[in-house]
Each structure stands twice: as structure tokens, then as C-alpha cells.
Design goal:
The complex is a heterodimer of chains A (563) and B (492). Chain A is mainly α. Chain A folds into four domains: 1-169 and 179-227, no CATH class; 237-480, no CATH class; 485-531; 534-563. Chain A has 20 helices and two strands. The relative contact order of chain A is 0.08. In chain B, α3 (76-103) runs parallel beside α14 (327-358) and α6 runs antiparallel to α8. Chain B has helices at residues 5-23, 26-54, 76-103, 106-128, 132-151, 157-187, 192-202, 206-222, 232-238, 241-267, 269-275, 278-298, 303-324, 327-358, 369-372, 374-388, 394-408, 412-438, 453-471, 474-489; strands spanning 57-60, 71-74. The chains are: A mainly alpha (563), B mainly alpha (492). At the A-B interface, α5, α6 and α20 of A face α6, α8, α12, α17 and α18 of B.
């Protein structure tokens, strides 16, 4: 369209500045036009390093384009547009400006050709997104946002340390395949892992996302973790460790999602679960698997966004988001209910919906490459997804018992945004070749063969059956959704019975050690904070004691000199 | 004319000071002083050009040849620092008028400007001269002028702070003098170039060791190396805002220059680092300084004092880079000299704006300032980001070199501690951000306006410089690398 060397994030940053100084209809127009224009611009850029300049002794490749980054670039533009549309009715400068900056940072990150540029956008992602959480303007969201920010910035710091080590060792900061090996690669891996919500490092996600504004969560769900998936796909494809991590990520959130009552938190858990599929794909590392991983990221942005949008709409209209306090909304929000179910069907990988065409790629790749166990566990988690995201979300929000809430459909822009996402979900499901043509590798994969369709349909059928049966038998109490699967019983009843005696002694020791240690740390902190700002180090000293220090340093130095 | 540049550099501000007396009127003096500063700045740029063309410039005062007369020697290292000092002093002076009007009576302002010019003379003299005793003389000129400036603060504690600085500064200067005296005793010369040649013969004597020790401790006192920094926080906190900007950005940097000059050019790298425990003492004190001063900074309630402690920790980074004893480390130190001056000028000038509107810099009063004074606060935050070492700011560039230097020696645990220092910097910057952007303004602070452009524009010149030199590193990093090579090149 115009000069191709304009980095893709620039329009967003310009748009953010314009949005800052305008208001009303003009601002709304800017919010919508920015992703559209930028997207059109992106269609014209060629592949290769487009913009770079010298920095220290390295080259900063601010804008480097290849098929992998283009795929993420496209979906981020689509997501930015949908999010902006969804949030169009919001009259909050903070949210809209930071939303644009956030989307721009994500786009900047995927087109970063070197590690330092990546790092800059990595931190910008953290800093710009936290305002979407703080924009709720409650004490709770402030604290949650602060925790989120600390962890995200920490991830960036670890990344930076890794980069410095990497640059020192390799004399290069190009962002390309790294692979696990030396300290540098591990540090970078951990930094990516934090943003990617690896197990044990995932708490920021389930902690902060549900605390954001109804529209903010939609933004958050689209970008941060997907940038991490992109980074992993570029730097660590074929790392076997990722398969284990991914499988754990796909499985463990299921249990938490099932017992969770806050429906947006359920979605946050299911997000980790979906990322698990992508991580497994990257871990396998074959062309098919990586294709599957990135296309699943593409689809996940759409269907998870759709689900978050529908829950955002529910929260926006009713002010409630707990499963136990909702129900029966289909009477007054039928369109939202239908759109939500499209999202649910996609995430559950119903044939003809988008989740199916990408998830099956990862599954096939696992099976083809001899990771049968991974395949089986992914299958189990796929059933779990259907359970908590496919059924639980729409069921408790829109059906179940009638909560008596009478509201109306959300504003038009919300419905529009959801409809666009829903149409895309179905379109990709029906005509996957459109998506496949954008993928980094050409594998000629076809998801619609008999085995896939049958396996998936059976799985979904039995999973649904289990839900219905449990529900009819009254074993799925809708108000307190806490116990549902038999597997659940194992980890909530059986394991404790066996493990409690063992762990209780272990914990007792652990507690004692911890207590002593924490007492020391707290004592130290207390001492510092009690004495500051007039503590021993910052008290105004008498001139005499300053001279004492001079004498000490001189004496020590002389002694050392004559040693 | 051209060949007299080295002396013009010093003589212009020196002559400007008494002329201020004659002019008397503060309004006139203000413009005159600015003019003199701009001239000094132009001279420093021309000097760097000359050095680039002709190499080291040697200027003999009054035509007396070196060992007897005093000579000025300008090489890349001092040319670089001369530009730093004159440019910062010039931009700072742009803001001086409005800030001083708020902070002191008009009748006192003329004296402040005179002290300012004398201080500048001293600093430029230290940088330009090639004579060890001359260094001491100029050091005293700049120190006495800075005690005066500090004492002119409108907080009564400024008198005490100035007095303490006077005591400590005098002890430091005395130590330096003792060191120089011992060197003179051993070699019979005061010219640095000459000293370097003659010290070789006597370098294994205890007298030379002692001379070096006194000299080092004296200079470390002047540059506020932990734990000899105790005079600094109060001096910075209670001085007039403009004095704080100027001293924080330049005075300690010049002291570090003295250290570099004597370690590398006079004693020589070989002697300093292999015969003396320089690495151990500089690295350990530098590190302790980085961590301890940052922790103290986190708990300060006076924001100027907070950044004063942050200066102590930043000095720790420079000393650490020097202590590593390799070329990259020295480059990091030289870069940080320049970069830290830019950061602190931006921050302290913005704080001058806060003082202008609010009257003090207690952190309580920062509540809600993010909305009331967005440009001022943005300058502080960006300066803070630079202190932390965020990429695209200058802070990142110098930290990058520092960490590389540590890795070159395989000292990665120290590299980790350096990064911990950055995390601590996040903590103290965050405290200000939290109060300024997330707290509602106090009852009596409801209606503050943005600082006047006269303060804001100079502050933003520094902010933009923070970005500019953070992105285009060819001037600073290139010059620092060349200078580091030069200094290592004179290894005996």
C-alpha cells in the first residue's frame, strides 16, 4: 500500500497516540480503522528483513518477516479488530489506549528479528497489558495486576539475562533456533515458559485474567501467551521436554476448571489447557506438529476470544460471573447463548468447527512420531475440555436452573464482535485450506478423514453422555459445581488417603524449616523497615563517624598493599 | 586562537565569575552566565575536533616547558568529559532562572551564579590540566564553590550538609595532597606525563604504595564511593535544586576521571592492578555500594535523598567497571559516566520542577502528580527507567557493557548481583510511580499545574538525550571504546 519498511507495530502506536487526544466518535473510528489499515499494510510486505539498524556491535532487526511471524501477525490484527469492536462502547481512555499499545507490542514482538527487540516488546506487553487489569479500578484488581506485572517483568528480566549470556557466547543476537543446552538457552526457555504459563509458572494467568475488565480479558486472552507460543515455536521446536510440559499443561487445568466457580477463571484454566496442545506440538517439532501448534494458536485466539467475549457480555449485563449465581440467561440473551455455543463447539473440537482442524494435527503428529502416551493423555484432556469449556460454560451461564436474572442482549458492538469471531470459527472449520495455506510448512494435511472424525465424535458423544448422566443422577450439583468426574475422586479422595500420612510428616518438617527461615527473613525485613528511613545505613552520620570510615578504608587498603 | 583552546576552556568561566560581581543584577548575570557557558561548550566541541584531527594537544602555560611550567594535556578522555560537563552545565543553566527565583532571594542569586561558575572552572580545570598539583588546586576551587552552593539551599539543614561536606571534602583533598606530595618527594616532578616516566624506577617502594593509598582514598571520598559516601545524600537533598542537578551530574564524574587518569596514565595499569589490591577493593566496595545504597534508597521519604542514594549505587557500577580491570569494563565505566549524568540531570531537573510547584519533594506530596504534572512525572519515570537499565535508554547500554565485562572474566555471580541491583532500582522507582499515578492528591495539593517550560524544556532535552544515546550508541560507545583502548595502550 505504501512504504513496506514501516514496521507493523507503528500504526498501532500512532493510533494509540491519536486515541489519546481524541474522543467520542472520532476515537471510535480510530480504534477500528487502526487494525484494518495496519492489516492491509501487512498484506503488502515482502518476506525477509525489512528494517534494521546498528546497535552496539549488533544489528537490531526491528522488522523481520517470514511465514511464521506473518501468521501470528495476521491473527493478531484480526484479534485486535475484534477486541476493539467488542470494547467500542467502553468510555475509558486508559483501556482503549493501552489496548492499542498492547496489541501493537504483541505485533512488534512477533516481527522482532533479534532478541533485544523481542525483549523490548516482551516488557512492553507486560507494561501495557497491566492497565487492562487495573482499569477495573478495584483494590482487588490493583493487587492482582501488581502480582501479574511483577511476574511478567521478572520473565523479561530473566529473558534479558539469558540474552546477555547468549550474545556473549554466540556473538549474535539473531532470534532463531536456540534449543536447550547451555545456561543462556535455559534462561531464555524459562522466560518464555513464564509467559507461556508452564505448569507451576502459570498462576499469574488464572490469578489476573479473571480480575480484568470484561473487555480487558478478551485482549489479554489474545496476545500474551500466544506471543510466548510463537517464541517457543521459533526458538525451541523439537525440544522433547516441551512434550512433557505440554501434556501436563493440557491435563492438570482440567481438574481445576471443573471445580472452579468463576466462569472466566474456568476459561483461564482452559486456556492453559489449550496452550498445552500447542506446546506439545512444538515439542514434537515435525512440520506437521509445528503447523498444528501454530494453527491451534490461531484458532484458540478466535474461539477463546469468543468464549471470553460471551462471558464478558454476561458480566457486563448482569454484573455476575459465578456459575452458581447465573443460569437461565438463554431466555433473555439468546444470541449471546448461541454465539457462546459456537465457541464452545470450537474449543471442544467438533468437526466442522475450527478447533478440530488444528487440534487433530497435533494429535496425529503425536501418534505418527511414537508418542502414543502423549496422544492418549491429550485425548483425555480433549474430553475434559469438552466437559468444562464445551458444556459447563454455556450450561451454567445460559441454562441450568433459572437464576431469575432478566436482562437483555449486550450492546450491538459486542454482538458484532462475537459474530465475527463465530463466523471465522465456523469458516475455518468448514474450509481449513484457507488457514493451512498460511502455515509455515506445506504438509498437505487433511483433517476430515474417517478416523479423525469418528474418534472425535465418539469422544464428544461419551463425554456428553457422562455429563448428562451425572446431571440426571444429581451427582453434578449445579449450584456448587465441585465434584463431577470419577477421576476427580481419585485425586480428591484416594490420593489424600494414601498420601496424607506420608506428607504430613514431610510437611511438618517442611513447616518447621520454613518457619525458622521465614522468621529470620521477616525479622530482617522488619528491622530494615522499622529503622528506615532513619536506619543504620541512611541515618545522617556525625562528621566524626564519617572520618572513622575514611580511616578504616585507608587502613584496610594500606594493609592490603603491604601484604 | 585555535592553539589556545585548552586554556580558553578554563579561563572563560574563571573570568566570567568576577565579571558577575561587576554586573551585580541577577537578571543580567543569568544571561551572561549562560552566554559564558555556551562559549565554554563551543570550545569543548572544538577541542574534541582538534583532538580527533591532531591527536593529543599539549599546551604550555606562559610558554614554560613541561617539568617546570604547567602544561595542559587534552586527549580523547578529557575532551569527551569536557563536552559532558559543559553541555550539562549549559542546559542546566537554562532552567536556573525560574528555579532559583522560587528558591532564593534575588539578592543571593548573583552569588549563586558566581559559585556555579567557579565550580565549573574547577571541574574543567581538573579535566584539562596535565599537572598533578594543578589538579589539587582546581579540586579545591570546585569544592569550595560547591560548599557555597549547597549552603544556599532554603532548608536550614543545608548548612549542616554543607559543613559536613566541607569537613569531608577537605579531608579528601588533604589526602590527595599527601599522595601528590609523596609522589613529588619520590620523583621530583609534578607533571603527570613526567611522573609516569619517573615512577617506574621507584614503584616498588613503600612510599609510592602509601602515596597511592592516600591518593585513592582521597579521591574515593570525593567521588562518594561506599562507605565514604556519607556526606553525599544530605548535600544533594538540601542543596538548591539547580546545584543538585549540576553536582550530581558532573562533580562525581570528574572525581572518577581523576581516578582513571592516575590509575592508567600516571601509575599505569600494570602497577595499579598487579601490585596493588585495586581489583579486590574496588569490586567489593562497588558491589556493596550498589546493593546497600539501592536498598536504602527504597525506604527514603525525601525523593531527592532517594535519588542521592541511587547516585551512590550508580557510582558503585562505575567503580565496579573500573575494578574489573579489562577493556570492556573500562568502556562500561566511561559510558556510565556519560549516561548516568544524563539520567540524573533529567531526574533532578524534573524534581526542580516539582519543588517549583510544591515547595518540597516529600514522597507524600507526589500523590496524584501523575495527572497534575504529567510531563514532569514522565521525565522522572523515563529517567528512572534509564536507571533501571531498560533497553532503548542509555542505562541499558552501560549495563550491557558492564555485564559483558564481568562475563569476560567469568565472574557471573557478580553479574547476577548487578542485575539484582537493577531489580532494586525497579523497587525504588516503582514507589514513586505508585504514589504519583495511583494515589489521589492530598487535600492541600489539589490544584498543581505543570512545571514552567523553562524547567521542563531542559529536563526534556535530557530525557530525549537519554533515548537518543540509548539508541544511537556510535558517539558514546565508540568514543568510550577508543578511550579505553587508549588508556590500556599506555600500559607500561
Amino acid at each position: 500500500m505504501w512504504m513496506p519498511e514501516l514496521p507493523a507495530f507503528v500504526p498501532f502506536f500512532i493510533g494509540a497516540v491519536l486515541a489519546l487526544v481524541t474522543s467520542g466518535k472520532v476515537r471510535q473510528a480510530i480504534l477500528l480503522i487502526t487494525p484494518v489499515l495496519s492489516g492491509l499494510h501487512l498484506l503488502t510486505v515482502p518476506v525477509g528483513t525489512i528494517l534494521s539498524f546498528d546497535f552496539l556491535s549488533f544489528q537490531l532487526q526491528v522488522f523481520e518477516v517470514d511465514k511464521l511471524s506473518l501468521l501470528f501477525g495476521y491473527i493478531f490484527h484480526i484479534a485486535a479488530f475484534i477486541c476493539m469492536l467488542f470494547a467500542l462502547h467502553v468510555k475509558d481512555t486508559l483501556q482503549q489506549v493501552s489496548g492499542l499499545l498492547y496489541a501493537g507490542s504483541a505485533i512488534g514482538a512477533v516481527f522482532a528479528g533479534d532478541l533485544i527487540t523481542l525483549f523490548i516488546f516482551w516488557e512492553l506487553l507486560a507494561v501495557t497489558s497491566v492497565f487492562l487489569i487495573w482499569a477495573r479500578r478495584t483494590e482487588r484488581s490493583y493487587i492482582a495486576g501488581l502480582r501479574y506485572l511483577i511476574i511478567q517483568v521478572l520473565s523479561g528480566v530473566i529473558l534479558l539475562v539469558g540474552i546477555i549470556f547468549y550474545a556473549y557466547k554466540n556473538q549474535s543476537i539473531d532470534f532463531e533456533f536456540i534449543g536447550l543446552g547451555d545456561t543462556a538457552s535455559w534462561l531464555i526457555f524459562i522466560a518464555f515458559g513464564i509467559k507461556c504459563a508452564f505448569p507451576m509458572l502459570h498462576n499469574w494467568l488464572t490469578d489476573a485474567y479473571p480480575e480484568a475488565t470484561p473487555t480487558g480479558t478478551v485482549f489479554l486472552s489474545a496476545f500474551t501467551t500466544k506471543v510466548a507460543v510463537y517464541a517457543l515455536a521459533r526458538a525451541y521446536p523439537g525440544t522433547e521436554l516441551l512434550i512433557y510440559i505440554g501434556v501436563i499443561m493440557a491435563c492438570f487445568p482440567i481438574f481445576f476448571a471443573v471445580i472452579e466457580n468463576d466462569l472466566r477463571r474456568v476459561l483461564a484454566y482452559s486456556m492453559i489447557n489449550q496452550i498445552g496442545f500447542m506446546v506439545v506440538g512444538i515439542g514434537i517439532g515435525t512440520a506437521l506438529a509445528v503447523n498444528g501448534a501454530v494453527s491451534h494458536a490461531f484458532n484458540d485466539i478466535l474461539f477463546k476470544g469468543l468464549l471470553f467475549m460471551s462471558m464478558g457480555a454476561v458480566l457486563h449485563m448482569t454484573g455476575k460471573i459465578d456459575g452458581s449465581r447465573l443460569g437461565g440467561l438463554y431466555k433473555t440473551m439468546p444470541k449471546t447463548a448461541i454465539l457462546c455455543m459456537v465457541g464452545a463447539a470450537s474449543i471442544s473440537a467438533f468437526p466442522l468447527f475450527s478447533g478440530f482442524v488444528s487440534k487433530s494435527m497435533v494429535m496425529s503428529a503425536a501418534l505418527n512420531n511414537g508418542y502414543g502416551w502423549a496422544w492418549a493423555l491429550l485425548l483425555f484432556s480433549a474430553a475434559g475440555v469438552f466437559h468444562h469449556a464445551g458444556i459447563k460454560i454455556p450450561y451454567f451461564a445460559f441454562f441450568a436452573h433459572d437464576s431469575g436474572i432478566r436482562t437483555s442482549e449486550p450492546p450491538k458492538n459486542m454482538l458484532m464482535a462475537m459474530s465475527i469471531a463465530a463466523v471465522l470459527c465456523i469458516a475455518i472449520g468448514v474450509y481449513p485450506q484457507a488457514l493451512y495455506s498460511l502455515l509455515p510448512f506445506d504438509t498437505g494435511y487433511n483433517p476430515y478423514d474417517a478416523t479423525h472424525v469418528l474418534t472425535q465424535t465418539q469422544l464428544l458423544f461419551f463425554s456428553a453422555l457422562a455429563f448428562v448422566w451425572l446431571n440426571l443422577r444429581g451427582m453434578y450439583p449445579p449450584e456448587l459445581p465441585s465434584v463431577n468426574l470419577d477421576i476427580d475422586w481419585i485425586y480428591r479422595r484416594l490420593f489424600p488417603a494414601i498420601l496424607t500420612p506420608f506428607f504430613s510428616t514431610f510437611w511438618a518438617i517442611d513447616r518447621a524449616v520454613r518457619r525458622v527461615f521465614m522468621r529470620g527473613v521477616n525479622g530482617l525485613l522488619d528491622m530494615i523497615s522499622r529503622h528506615e528511613p532513619d536506619g543504620i545505613l541512611s541515618r545522617t552520620q556525625l562528621s566524626g563517624s564519617m572520618v572513622v570510615w575514611v580511616t578504616i578504608v585507608l587502613a584496610v587498603y594500606l594493609i592490603l598493599s603491604f601484604w | 586562537m585555535i592553539q589556545h583552546l585548552p586554556i580558553l576552556q578554563v579561563i572563560i568561566p574563571l573570568l566570567a565569575a568576577p565579571i558577575c560581581f561587576i554586573l551585580r543584577e541577577a537578571k543580567l548575570v543569568r544571561w551572561f552566565v549562560l552566554l559564558a557557558n555556551i562559549m565554554a561548550f563551543v570550545v569543548s566541541i572544538m577541542l574534541l575536533q582538534q583532538v580527533n584531527v591532531h591527536g593529543t594537544l599539549v599546551y604550555t602555560l606562559g610558554g614554560w616547558e613541561a617539568p617546570i611550567g604547567i602544561e595542559y594535556r587534552i586527549d580523547e578522555l578529557n575532551a569527551y568529559l569536557l563536552i559532558l560537563v559543559t553541555s550539562i552545565s549549559t542546559v542546566t543553566l537554562m532552567a536556573a532562572g525560574s528555579s532559583l527565583n522560587k528558591e532564593m532571594k534575588e539578592s543571593k542569586q548573583t552569588y549563586f551564579y558566581i559559585a556555579y561558575m567557579l565550580c565549573l572552572t574547577g571541574l574543567l580545570g581538573i579535566l584539562a590540566t596535565g599537572d598533578a598539583f594543578n589538579v589539587f588546586v582546581f579540586l579545591e576551587i570546585s569544592s569550595l564553590a560547591s560548599y557555597t552552593m549547597i549552603a544556599m539551599g532554603n532548608d536550614r539543614r543545608s548548612l549542616w550538609a554543607s559543613y559536613q561536606y566541607l569537613i569531608m571534602g577537605t579531608i579528601g583533598a588533604t589526602f590527595i595532597l599527601i599522595g601528590i606530595g609523596l609522589m613529588y618527594m619520590m620523583t621530583g616532578t609534578l607533571n603527570m606525563h613526567d611522573l609516569a616516566e619517573r615512577l617506574v624506577e621507584v614503584e616498588q617502594t613503600k612510599t609510592v604504595f602509601t602515596a597511592f593509598a592516600f591518593f585513592l582514598v582521597g579521591v574515593c571520598l570525593k567521588l562518594a564511593l561506599f562507605p565514604l559516601h556519607l556526606w553525599l545524600p544530605n548535600a544533594y537533598a538540601y542543596a538548591p535544586s539547580i546545584a543538585t542537578v549540576f553536582l550530581a551530574a558532573t562533580a562525581t564524574k570528574v572525581a572518577i576521571y581523576i581516578l582513571l587518569r592516575f590509575i592508567f596514565s600516571v601509575y599505569g595499569f600494570e602497577f595499579s592492578f598487579s601490585h596493588l589490591p585495586l581489583t579486590e577493593i574496588l569490586v567489593s566496595l562497588g558491589l556493596v555500594g550498589i546493593i546497600a545504597a539501592s536498598i536504602v534508597a527504597i525506604y527514603q521519604t525525601n525523593v531527592k535523598r532517594l535519588f542521592a542514594y541511587s547516585s551512590v549505587s550508580q557510582i558503585g557500577y562505575m567503580i565496579l567497571g573500573l575494578g574489573i580491570g579489562n577493556k570492556t569494563g573500562l568502556t562500561a565505566t566511561l559510558l556510565h559516566l556519560f549516561n548516568h549524568a544524563l539520567m540524573k540531570s533529567a531526574i533532578f531537573l524534573a524534581l526542580a520542577g516539582v519543588v517549583y510547584r510544591i515547595g518540597n519533594v516529600n514522597i507524600k506530596n507526589f500523590a496524584g502528580l501523575g495527572r497534575q504534572m504529567p510531563w514532569t512525572m514522565a521525565a522522572i519515570v523515563i529517567g528512572g527507567l534509564s536507571l533501571i537499565g531498560v533497553p532503548l535508554t542509555v542505562g541499558f547500554v552501560s549495563k550491557w557493557y558492564l555485564v559483558l565485562a564481568l562475563l569476560e572474566n567469568g565472574w557471573w555471580p557478580i553479574a547476577v548481583l548487578v542485575l539484582v541491583g537493577s531489580l532494586l532500582a525497579i523497587a525504588y522507582i516503582w514507589r514513586i510511580v505508585e504514589v504519583a499515578y495511583f494515589k489521589a492528591p492530598l487535600q492541600n495539593n489539589q490544584s498543581h499545574k505543570e512545571a514552567p517550560p523553562a524547567i521542563l524544556i531542559p529536563a526534556w532535552i535530557f530525557v530525549i538525550a537519554n533515548f537518543y544515546f540509548g539508541i544511537d550508541t556510535s558517539f558514546t560507545a565508540g568514543l568510550s571504546e577508543r578511550t579505553a583502548e587508549l588508556l590500556f595502550g599506555v600500559v607500561k
